[in-house]
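Work Package 4 report. The design task specified in the project plan requires that, given a folded chain encoded as C-alpha cells, an amino acid be chosen for each position. We show below one input record used in the internal validation round.
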C-alpha cells in the first residue's frame, strides 16, 4: 500500500485498483509505453575492466563491423539496470500498462488473464535491476529467462511455438507464430510476443544506430573488456542541446562485432538511464534442449487466442467509463516537429480532451493523486496542461487533448506547444 493511502476495505481496494489501471491507460501511451519499448529495445552495461590494446578503427569501420556481424548463436548472462524515474511496474501496474488494466501480474485471483503473459511481464524490465539468462540459435530459437530471488520467468521461442512460464504462479502462456515469412525471411512473430524485444544480438545495436544522422556525433573512444572479451567503445552523442540524452556508449566485441554492453547516460547527469550488458557470454551453439519446453504438471495454461478474447471482454467492462486508448488506432493527426534527437511527436488524444481529473467523476481521488505525482502543471500560449516526466522521455498533455512527446526537456515541449498554438 502506498504511503498516502488510508486503510481500505475490499471494495475500496478494488476501486483504487480500477482507478490506477484507468490512469495508466491515459498516461502510458504517451509517456511510458514508448519509454519501455525504447529501453528494452536498446538492450545490451556492466562493470568493465582493463584497456586492451587493439588495432585502431574509425567509427565508420566499427559501425560497419556491427552491421556485418552474423552472430546468431550465443548463450550468456545479462544484467540490466533501468532508472527512468518511474514507479515499479510490478503486479497490477504492469498488467494495467501492458494490457489496459485487464490482466497480468499477481492480481489476487480476480479472474484476470495469465500471469505469464509476456506483454505484462517484460514491462517489468523497464524499472529496477534484473538478471537475465539468454540463449539464441538463429531467428527461430531464442530463450530469455528473468531470474528473481525465489522465482524465474522464461520466454522460449522454438519454431512456431512461443512459450512463457512464470514459476511463481505456475502459469504458462502459449502462442503460435503466423507461419509465414516476412520481408526479412523470418516467420512472423505471434501478436502476443512484444515486438520491441529484439530476437538477436545484432538487433540491439541496430536500435541505437537508427539515431545516427547529421545531428549526431559518433566516435570510437578507447577500448574495454566486457565479460572477459576485448571490445571497442563506440560513443554516440547528440550535437543539439535540449535532448534528455547525454550519450550512448556501446561496447562492441572486437572479434565478432557483437554488442556486449550498452549504456545510456542522461544529459542531466546522475546514474545511467539504461545500463545493461553481458557478465558471461559464449558464442558456441547452445544445446538443442535449451529451447525445449513442456508445461509442468498442474500448471495453468493460457492460449494466446484465449488471452486476446479476455482482453476484448475486459475493455468493455463497466469499471471503465471513458474511452479506452487503443494504440495506433487512436493516434490522431500524428506529426513530427523538429529533427534528430530533438524530434517531438505531436498528436491528439481520442475525444479531444486531456487527462481526466477527479472533478470529472472519471477518476477516483487516489488515482488522481497518482497522476498528479507523475506530472508537473505548465501553461503558455497553448493554454495549460501537464508534463509527465521520466529521465528519458517527457510528454506534455494539454487540457484540449494535444500531446507533445519526445526525448527532450520540459522547456522544449512547452516551446513546441506554444509554436503550434
Amino acid at each position: 500500500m502506498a504511503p498516502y493511502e488510508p486503510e481500505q476495505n475490499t471494495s475500496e481496494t478494488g476501486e483504487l485498483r480500477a482507478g490506477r489501471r484507468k490512469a495508466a491507460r491515459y498516461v502510458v501511451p504517451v509517456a511510458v509505453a514508448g519509454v519501455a519499448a525504447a529501453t528494452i529495445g536498446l538492450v545490451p552495461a556492466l562493470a568493465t575492466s582493463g584497456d586492451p590494446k587493439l588495432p585502431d578503427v574509425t567509427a565508420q569501420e566499427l559501425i560497419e563491423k556491427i552491421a556485418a556481424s552474423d552472430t546468431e548463436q550465443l548463450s550468456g548472462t545479462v544484467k540490466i539496470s533501468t532508472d527512468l524515474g518511474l514507479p515499479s511496474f510490478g503486479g497490477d501496474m504492469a498488467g494495467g500498462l501492458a494490457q489496459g488494466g485487464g490482466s497480468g501480474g499477481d492480481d489476487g485471483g480476480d479472474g484476470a488473464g495469465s500471469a505469464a503473459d509476456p506483454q505484462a511481464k517484460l514491462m517489468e524490465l523497464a524499472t529496477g535491476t534484473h538478471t537475465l539468462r539468454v540463449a539464441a540459435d538463429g531467428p527461430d530459437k531464442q530463450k530469455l529467462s528473468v531470474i528473481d530471488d525465489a522465482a524465474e520467468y522464461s520466454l522460449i521461442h522454438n519454431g512456431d511455438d512461443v512459450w512463457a512460464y512464470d514459476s511463481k504462479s505456475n502459469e504458462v502462456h502459449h502462442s503460435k507464430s503466423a507461419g509465414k515469412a516476412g520481408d526479412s525471411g523470418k516467420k512472423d512473430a505471434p501478436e502476443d510476443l512484444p515486438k520491441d524485444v529484439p530476437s538477436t544480438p545484432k538487433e540491439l545495436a541496430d536500435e541505437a544506430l537508427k539515431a545516427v544522422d547529421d545531428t549526431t556525433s559518433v566516435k570510437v573512444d578507447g577500448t574495454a573488456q566486457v565479460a572477459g572479451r576485448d571490445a571497442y567503445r563506440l560513443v554516440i552523442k547528440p550535437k543539439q542541446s535540449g535532448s534528455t540524452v547525454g550519450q550512448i556508449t556501446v561496447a562492441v566485441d572486437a572479434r565478432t562485432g557483437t554488442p556486449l554492453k550498452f549504456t545510456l547516460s542522461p544529459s542531466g547527469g546522475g546514474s545511467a538511464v539504461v545500463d545493461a550488458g553481458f557478465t558471461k557470454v559464449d558464442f558456441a551453439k547452445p544445446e538443442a534442449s535449451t529451447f525445449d519446453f513442456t508445461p509442468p504438471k498442474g500448471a495453468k495454461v493460457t492460449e494466446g487466442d484465449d488471452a486476446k478474447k479476455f482482453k476484448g471482454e475486459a475493455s468493455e467492462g463497466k469499471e471503465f467509463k471513458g474511452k479506452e486508448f487503443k494504440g495506433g488506432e487512436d493516434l490522431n493527426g500524428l506529426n513530427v516537429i523538429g529533427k534528430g534527437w530533438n524530434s517531438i511527436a505531436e498528436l491528439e488524444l481520442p475525444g479531444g480532451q486531456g487527462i481526466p481529473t477527479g472533478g470529472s467523476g472519471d477518476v477516483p481521488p487516489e488515482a488522481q493523486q497518482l497522476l498528479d505525482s507523475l506530472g508537473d502543471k505548465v501553461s503558455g500560449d497553448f493554454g495549460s496542461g501537464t508534463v509527465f516526466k521520466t529521465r528519458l522521455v517527457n510528454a506534455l498533455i494539454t487540457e484540449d487533448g494535444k500531446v507533445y512527446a519526445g526525448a527532450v526537456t520540459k522547456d522544449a515541449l512547452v516551446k513546441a506547444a506554444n509554436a503550434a498554438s
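Helices lie at 10-41, 59-68, 91-99, 118-121, 201-209, 304-315, 365-374, 410-420. Validation will be extended to a larger panel in the next phase.
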